[in-house]
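notes to self, project folder thing:

trying the whole complex as one job this time. last attempt i did each chain seperately and stitching them together was a nightmare. two parts in total, labels are on each line so i dont mix them up again. if this works i'll redo the older ones the same way
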Amino acid sequence: MPAQIKKQDALRSAMERSTRFISYTLLTAFAVTFLLPLYWMFTGSFKLQTVTMAVPPEFIPIHPTLENWIRLFTGPWPIWRWVLNSAAVSLLTVVLVLIVSSLTGYGFGKKKFPGSNILFFILLSTMFLPNQVMLIPLFLLVRYLHLTSTLLGTYFAMAMPMISSPFGIFLIKQFCSTIPDELLDAARIDGASEWQVFTRIVLPLLKPALAALSIFTFNQAWNYFMWHMVLATDKFQYTVPVGVSIISRTPAIGKMLTDIGITMAGGSFGAVFMIGLFIAFQQYFIKGITFGAVKE
Amino acid sequence: MTKIKTLASEIRKGWAGYLFITPGYLAFIAFMLLPILFAISLSFYKATFDISARQFTGFGQYILLSKDLIFKQALINTIKYTLVIVPLTVLISLTVALLIDPLGIKAQSFFRGAFYLPGVAGGVVLSVVYLWIFNPTYGLFNYLLGLAGLEPILWLATAPHSFQAVCMVVLTFTIGQPIILFLAGLAGISQDILDAATVDGASNLQKTFFIRLPMLRPVLLFVLATQTIQVFQLWEVIYMVTGGGPFNSSTSLVYLIYQTAFIGGNYGKASAIGVVLMGIIMIFTLAQLKFWRETDV
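result (full assembly):
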């Protein structure tokens, strides 16, 4: 009998090992396929124009060059200004979304008042509407108020369509419902005002949700390409994605060809900030995605 | 009378609630509700660059749209994009998630992050490199096709291929989010159930088909809903990679909204297209909600 069990165990572990091998191979194949564009862009930024157009292509740059990066940093494009613009717009959006979502989400999550259900329903029903529809009126408003004539006005205009985030409010409301009422009542009995209950007890408890919401909003605001492009009219107003797209559409000097090298350097430069942020705050990114969708 | 009185006292008691939601609700009204309502009203006007000179045309814009061949093409393409990209996204991300799930914690978080990276980089950055990859003479794809003994393809200049090219670029960054969601769903399946199945002699494949997949249903529905709405709003890749061409074969409704409003300055028509898109998304969301409720026994 024991010999038979041993045999079975050996068979099972052999099978486990082979399935593990197969799944690792498959996974690696998938990962290589889906990461190939990023790899191609990054290595392409170290290739000379003649090399970028060579057939067969060089999978690893044989004579890597910094020429594209030097041209990117010393060229006519104010790339650091774009980073500043993107960072300012994204941060402003995050701050406004945090204020709006925490207050409103708490109001809907923990307060009982007539009309709260219908008000919340109206809010939620806009969550899935295509936001390009409201960009037209917002654009007319920005034009009417000449918001883009000043730097701060431009930043605010770029943040505008994201300020009222039904997703953020929904997320905070859900999170608030996990806070026990007794905790808040105890504070009230101790003489805390409604505002103190919110700032001293609720806000600290909301920290993980707010962190996830921040990082999620930051990423979204950073990549809000259409709106940025509609608003930015000169190169000092560009955000990073707008700048990257403009570089890619600018042909090499004296040629009709796309300047692939500098385009790849620009793309890598544009991607590196969000990728860095992602690697540093991966767990918050993931929380922001899974909140509300998956019961834990 | 007493009803009104109790309501009044409840409103008075709820003052804190009203105060807390006021800033957010004002922002919502100013930056979302009013713009949407204004866009709907604009769709009943002939409105161009000088918005104050707009003329009321009733359903004029909608009647024009019904005869507009480019609009029709954009509508068909948008639905086609959804029918191609959403199922592929779900299939690939579900497969990848099932492959990642049994791995150790470190390997899990490595692969999960790797597949999400393209999404973080964003559609613009990816489009820029894909333009090079799709180049007919020195692009990577045609080189790989050549290695496989296939003819080179004019990816962005010929009709079915520009559509396929857009799908490929989009797939690169849509799979990351569902993978994370599926993994979270898989992690939530109780180990007891899986162990019980193992004791009963179920193979791993059987456990996947009869336990894991059925238990992932809520996540799957969420992924389907969010992905469909995202693909309905597809435009930046089209703008970057094909410009909607050739001959509008890869255009989409949102790309048409962008062109009509922000390039052409025809705000009335663009708003009408937007209202149509809004209607489609709403019908779709309601249908899904209904399906969700009916099958959730």
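what i see at first glance: Chain B has a mean pLDDT of 90.
need to look closer tmrw
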